[in-house]
Amino acid sequence: MACVPLTRDLCMSRSTLLSRSIWGANIHRGLATHLARGAASAAALNVQPRSPTTARSVQEVVSDDLPTISMDGRKVAVGWDTRTWSRFHNIWLRDHCRCPQCFHSTTKQRLLNTFEIPADITPSQVEPTADGLQVSWPSSESHVSLYPWSWLQKNSYDPPLGQRETRAEKIIWSSKIQTSPPTITYQEAMAEDDRGLYKWLSHIDRFGMCFISGVPPTPEATEELSRRIGFIRETQYGKFWDFTSDLAKGDTAYTTLALGAHTDNTYFTDPCGLQLFHLLSHTEGTGGSTLLVDGFYVASILKELHPEAYSILARTPVPAHAAGEPSALYQPSPPSGYPVLGHDPVTGELIQVRWNNDDRSVMNNLDPYQVEEWYNAIKTWHKLLTSPDSEYWVQLGPGTAVIIDNHRVLHGRSAFTGKRRMCGAYIGVDEYRSKLAVLREKFAANPNTPSVLETERSIWSPAL
Ligand SMILES: [Zn+2]
């Protein structure tokens, strides 16, 4: 009786097979699992044998409590359970061998010559082991690769099992964040064990900004605080900047005028990642509140209420320039610029907001039919950006610094009178992401990856 469904199911397409959820309901459990695995493994490789002879050409290895393996001339399939299979091309597996001959365990760089792998390479043997999938390759000297199960699962591309994302969830915010904005103390940020630093960077990662209280109101302490994260990124405004409102740098930032919510460096190919600033003093005057707006929050509303405008901002490149000083003329590469809303090309996730209407150059790349709809789209965007629901106003004073993710949170200020002394720094996005990743390895090791010693990174780290 058991043979009948086996024969029939071997002829089924994979989708038919997977859609059947009643596998083995009436048969002995162990047998059912075996049958399911046999049929599913053949189907997993899209092999549809017409007779048991052909079926036997599909190798299958079943070990208790280990994933099921099957292979054909092109791929190895790993069955996590009877319904979930990941297929890996033979050439992909060979290219990702991380044995000491193929991958340098210290430098974490590939040693193997990818271009010498025969296009039709096929394992001589595959075996599930407690440590992972063991694959032997045909060659004059024996070559054995071992891939940890968790690594295979995380890197499964056929189908993607969606476990690659290690980033923490973002918390988007409106003006209501004023009741409890993310804050850490200077002492926490500077503490030697780096736990406070991890907390700080995690706040920036989730909220796109964080206040630091109790900072000594000096440029020296503020610079030291900035350097906790990484190198300061030097720009035309200097390295660590410390300035008063004197228009010294040919930019509105150096005046007493109000500044609408914007991101910095829209005229750079890679705008600075983080910006930290600290008001050291404000004398003989008033005003100068700081404005913060979560660009991801505003984008989410735009997408919900005006999807067409969102789409226009996501696809229309905007040129920009910084040209206030005779000695500098910045434009991004390519000069046509980047869209206001930048997305991850793989996941489609919003990853960057670039917006400074003051620095925008001539819009000469629009098709004639796009001109009016583009102006309508930025007007809608501007309206949401400047709504009281979006704007978080805070009066900063000496002792409280703020750091913002310049790829997400827009900043501005109200006009002021008197004399203000501001200091601050830019930190590159790569330095910040690197520091956060290292601290994450240290304090929030993923239990699914092989143990990471504090001193040495695993060759199976999800980032490699
Ligand atoms: Zn190798």
TrEMBL record:
InterPro entries xref list: AlphaKG_dependent_hydroxylases (IPR050411), GBBH-like_N (IPR010376), GBBH-like_N_sf (IPR038492), TauD-like_sf (IPR042098), TauD/TfdA-like (IPR003819), Trimethyllysine_dOase (IPR012776)
Alphabetical list of NCBIfam families matching this protein: carnitine_TMLD
Positions of the TauD/TfdA-like domain: 183-426
Family as reported in the entry's similarity comment: Belongs to the gamma-BBH/TMLD family.
Annotated keywords: Carnitine biosynthesis, Dioxygenase, Iron, Metal-binding, Oxidoreductase
CDD domains, per database record: CAS_like (cd00250)
Reaction(s) catalysed (UniProt annotation): N(6),N(6),N(6)-trimethyl-L-lysine + 2-oxoglutarate + O2 = (3S)-3-hydroxy-N(6),N(6),N(6)-trimethyl-L-lysine + succinate + CO2
GO MF term set: iron ion binding; trimethyllysine dioxygenase activity
Protein name: trimethyllysine dioxygenase
Pathway assigned in UniProt: Amine and polyamine biosynthesis; carnitine biosynthesis
GO CC annotation terms, alphabetical: mitochondrion
Organism: Mycena alexandri
Domain Gamma-butyrobetaine hydroxylase-like N-terminal: 70-152
Superkingdom, taxonomy of origin: Eukaryota
